[in-house]
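To fix ideas, we quote verbatim a fold written out as tokens:
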Amino acid sequence: MRKWGVLISIIYALIVLGLLTPMAVLLAGPSDLREFSHGVLAAYREWLAWFPIVIVLGGQALLFFLSVDTSQKRLKPRSHILLSCVLAGILTALLAFALIGAIGVAVQGDRFGEGAFANPFLFFGLAWLFWGIVFYFFLRNSSEIVNRVMSWLLRGSILELLVVVPCHVIVRRRHDCSAPMVTSFGIITGMAIMLLSFGPSVLFLYKKRLEAYASRPLT
């Protein structure tokens, strides 16, 4: 099972780096193919662009580790609760960050970011802390932590996309300068976390099916 987890993590990394990142540049609105190619190269060279990429790729790998690991099956995985809460909190904070940013640029346009959102790292850190505490209180008595986290992340990513996509249409029709970059980031973030939530869920269901086959009595 761990080998399948590694394989799916590699495929997910290729999707994020080879498909979703160029798609974010394309949604931002390059004027021609040359500008698009330069934008993609600039995105890969920008350290700030790697911040959400590392979050989603690291989150995928950690969730596979938590879901595939069966060593804690007989005992309640209390040592993993904090890690699960931290991971779920940072992924949900990323969704909240993208959602609020998209709504802000849809309302205020390129002027958004001059107020409370002027320090994005502070806002992201506070959102991470808030959601980490929320997940801790919801998960501390749960026996199926990964399943619940996957369910919440999937719902959150769908909700985020339902809001961010109309915001992207609004800012593109207004011909804003920088706002489409924010909304395109929101769209790609929602898609990345949606795909992230599918991977461990599918492998976890596959693992449960194998265990069900193994527990059937021989006739």
Notes: The radius of gyration is 19 Å. Residues 33 and 180 are 18 Å apart (CA to CA). Residues 2-215 form one domain.
